[in-house]
Amino acid sequence: MKHQILPVQIPGEEQEGTLYTYLWSKSEELALGKKRPLILMCPGGGYRRTSDREAEPMALTFMGMGYHVAVLRYSCGENIHYPIALMQLAKAVCMVREHAREWGVISDKIIIQGCSAGGHLAASLGVFWKQREELWRSLNATAEDVRPNGLLLSYPVISSGEFAHKPSFERLLGAAYEREKDAQSLEKYVTSQVPPTFLWHTLTDPTVPVENSLLFLSALHNHKIPVEFHLYPEGGHGLALASRLTMASEGAGIQPACESWIHLAKTWLTRYFPWDQEQ
Predict the structure, then answer these.
(1) What is the pLDDT of residues 137-183, one digit of tens each?
(2) Cα(48)–Cα(232) distance, rounded to whole angstroms?
(3) Which of 45, 79, 85 is nearest to 174 (CA)?
(4) Of 119, 116, 88, nearest to 11 (Cα)?
(5) Cβ-contact 51, 43 below 8 angstroms
């Protein structure tokens, strides 16, 4: 495995993100997988922090499926507001494409994964990669350079309306919350340019209401975007893998009935982004 820790710097911005790579090493002994898709992960944390539980344990799980993985620790917290995190994600996608040959990445198979507020960040790039020129012009890049090829979203924050997780949007926008919140309600901005999407949520999520995923699902369906959605009847928020591997320090986060999501995601990834084809 090639593990690197790389700075993600936006021109003119003091805040710096960090990209952690988990890359399959090149080996002449392996018959397949000389080049692989890459899953770029955005951990959740309510735009206050980035969760450890939704980072490395999940990254290694995806790597075990045969994928290159990178985790973006984007800037968030007090006095760090939109669009810094989104710009860092766009920059991270550019970095992956710039290093595609070196890292053995299939450059048109970059999947953005996100949990909770990280799901909002991931979905924001999926929705806005072509609509909002500041995402790529300030990086001296093109829209295609920052384009995600797939979205894999776990209990995502989506809507800033009736079913909003208000604290996430308040941290994201700061003093601009009332003025800018509607522009962050992603279900309103879905177009035919959004990539294929995998979604899962629990019906009883007490933090980010399931309507967030349902609104996004409806918008994707209306624009004929390929989408797979799994709704679990029970389960809390921030489940990560929903297993002991990502159990929280206080013992929360285990929901056996939801553990199947990662296997369903593997099937979806295999359908749209196979790695085991001759390169």
Answers:
(1) 999 999 999 999 999 999 999 999 999 999 999 999 999 999 999 99
(2) 26
(3) 79
(4) 88
(5) yes
